[in-house]
């Protein structure tokens, strides 16, 4: 079961009426006018019925909402677009038939409307329709179910993530004690089995990554960040001269996930919003705003393909630690660039990118980014980024990536784990540097500290990551 990020965000406050909803770049909706027409017809019919709505109180209680939810917990929802449409229409008309019977039908009607919401490609929009067309009592029940559903999805997260095949678990670990004696906890990665020295624990591709802006468009792939050593294999974007790819596969993936929306197009008639964003990235060497643009487009793409993956990019990001980023003219400018570049293409994105949400997303990226080394040629090394990224800088850095699982790896000055970009792409492998036993925490280095004194190292870790290192090296040099 899957609930849209936007619906989840709105249910959180139940401010459905005022919500500037629908961050839903919704290919299905666009591609299927029939679906909308059918729904409109249904809405009209429902509106008529709602007029005669019985005002008697429903007997459905909050408890039966939970029961109802439990009842459909294991229900399999159809997966193909065609089946989902059929299913959705069936639930909508069944729900409508039920609520016209009066209060005794409200509970079952709510279940039907809830089920329809689970498969409808633009749930936020459907919620708006419900609000206008179904009896208030039924609407409250549906929202109650949705709210519970979102809550249980939140609670379930760490029981299904990370996936078993990654051989790690996320567990709470003590981080220290506050001045008044309160225990501080954090999350960390723990080995699910034993690993020998040099063994790969897992590999993962980033949610989103970006090249250092100075390498863009030359001999590094815009999608996987690989250095393209043979010019004949280079694939250009069909619409712009700003980016290149190592293969057609990368070009296609980048296209559907984010580049089709963010491409500068390099034509005269296009307005400059995408170009302004690209220029800003290049001139400021600030990748984060571009990465957030890619992130948001990819998140909406993931929701629109509705692949059955329960947690999307946003679900993964919203649980992570972040740095406090204060608003400044820089952030104001970045928000404007982002809204302009995406606003006309993703309905509702303007309202979604509030200043508060932007600052937190930026803080999450800055806290969790890793430097990526893909350059085969050491001469292609770039100056370390002005932005924060975790890296012990063993090799030249070519970009940065945001990873679902690796974000949870905690720092040690003497780590037992090491990040490796063995394929020369943004795919990272976590490799055991020492023998690691099941249940042991896996730690990596966030900073290179060979040239730093203990004090300098501590200061850097604290200012960059609010982190008081408790590794043996830091504990014994006290
Ligand atoms: Zn590539
Ligand atoms: Zn392009
Ligand atoms: Zn340390």
UniProtKB/TrEMBL annotation:
Write down the PROSITE patterns for this protein, in alphabetical order. SET, ZF_MYND_1, ZF_MYND_2
Q: Which Pfam families match?
A: MAS20 (PF02064), SET (PF00856), zf-MYND (PF01753)
Q: Which residues form a coiled coil?
A: none
* Keywords tagged on the record: Membrane, Metal-binding, Mitochondrion, Mitochondrion outer membrane, Protein transport, Transmembrane, Transmembrane helix, Transport, Zinc, Zinc-finger
Q: Which GO terms describe its cellular component?
A: mitochondrial outer membrane translocase complex
Coarse class of the primary localization is: mitochondrion
Domain named MYND-type: residues: 221-263
Domain of life the protein comes from: Eukaryota
Q: Which GO terms describe its molecular function?
A: mitochondrion targeting sequence binding; protein transmembrane transporter activity; zinc ion binding
- Domain SET residue range list: 168-447
Its record classes its membrane topology as:
Single-pass membrane protein
Region of interest: Disordered = 35-65
Q: Which InterPro entries match?
A: MAS20 (IPR002056), SET_dom (IPR001214), SET_dom_sf (IPR046341), Tom20_dom_sf (IPR023392), Znf_MYND (IPR002893)
Manganese as a keyword of this entry, yes or no, is no
Task: List the subcellular locations.
Answer: Mitochondrion outer membrane
Look up the record and give one Gene Ontology term from the biological process aspect.
protein targeting
The family database entries (Gene3D superfamilies) matched by this protein are listed as: 1.10.220.160, 6.10.140.2220, Mitochondrial outer membrane translocase complex, subunit Tom20 domain, SET domain
Which ranges are annotated Basic residues under compositional bias?
37-48
What is stated as this protein's family in its record?
A: Belongs to the Tom20 family.
Protein known as: SET domain-containing protein
Q: Which organism is it from?
A: Lunasporangiospora selenospora
């Amino acid at each position: 079961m899957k609930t849209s990020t936007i619906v989840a965000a709105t249910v959180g406050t139940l401010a459905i009426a005022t919500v500037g909803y629908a961050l839903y770049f919704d290919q299905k909706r666009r591609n299927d006018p029939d679906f909308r027409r059918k729904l409109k017809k249904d809405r009209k019919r429902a509106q008529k019925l709602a007029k005669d709505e019985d005002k008697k109180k429903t007997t459905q209680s909050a408890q039966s909402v939970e029961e109802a939810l439990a009842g459909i917990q294991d229900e399999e929802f159809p997966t193909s677009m065609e089946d989902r449409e059929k299913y959705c229409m069936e639930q909508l008309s069944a729900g409508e038939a039920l609520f016209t019977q009066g209060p005794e039908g409200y509970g079952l009607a709510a279940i039907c409307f809830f089920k329809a919401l689970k498969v409808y490609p633009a749930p936020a929009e459907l919620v708006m329709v419900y609000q206008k067309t179904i009896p208030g009592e039924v609407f409250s029940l549906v929202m109650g179910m949705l709210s519970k559903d979102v809550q249980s999805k939140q609670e379930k997260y760490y029981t299904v993530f990370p996936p078993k095949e990654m051989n790690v678990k996320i567990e709470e670990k003590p981080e220290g004690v506050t001045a008044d004696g309160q225990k501080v906890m954090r999350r960390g990665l723990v080995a699910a089995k034993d690993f020998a020295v040099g063994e790969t624990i897992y590999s993962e591709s980033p949610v989103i990554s970006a090249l250092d802006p100075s390498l863009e468009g030359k001999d590094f792939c815009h999608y996987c960040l690989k250095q393209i050593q043979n010019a004949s294999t280079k694939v250009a974007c069909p619409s712009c001269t700003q980016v290149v790819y190592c293969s057609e596969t990368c070009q296609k993936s980048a296209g559907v996930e984010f580049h089709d929306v963010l491409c500068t197009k390099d034509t005269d008639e296009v307005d400059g919003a995408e170009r302004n964003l690209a220029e800003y990235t290049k001139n400021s060497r600030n990748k984060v705003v571009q990465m957030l643009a890619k992130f948001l487009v990819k998140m909406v793409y993931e929701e629109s393909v509705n692949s059955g993956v329960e947690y999307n990019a946003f679900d993964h990001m919203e649980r992570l630690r972040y740095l406090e980023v204060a608003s400044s003219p820089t952030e104001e400018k970045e928000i404007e660039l982002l809204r302009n570049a995406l606003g006309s293409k993703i309905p509702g994105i303007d309202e979604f990118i509030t200043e508060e949400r932007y600052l937190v997303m930026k803080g999450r990226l800055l806290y969790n980014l890793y430097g990526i080394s893909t350059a085969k040629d050491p001469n292609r090394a770039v100056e370390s980024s002005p932005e924060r990224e975790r890296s012990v800088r063993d090799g030249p850095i070519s970009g940065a990536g945001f990873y679902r699982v690796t974000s949870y790896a905690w720092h040690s000055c003497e780590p037992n784990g090491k990040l490796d970009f063995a394929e020369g792409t943004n795919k990272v492998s976590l490799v055991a540097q020492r023998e690691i036993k099941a249940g042991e925490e896996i730690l990596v280095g966030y900073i290179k500290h060979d040239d730093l004194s203990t004090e300098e190292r501590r200061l850097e870790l604290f200012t960059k990551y609010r982190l008081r290192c408790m590794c043996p090296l830091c504990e014994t040099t006290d």
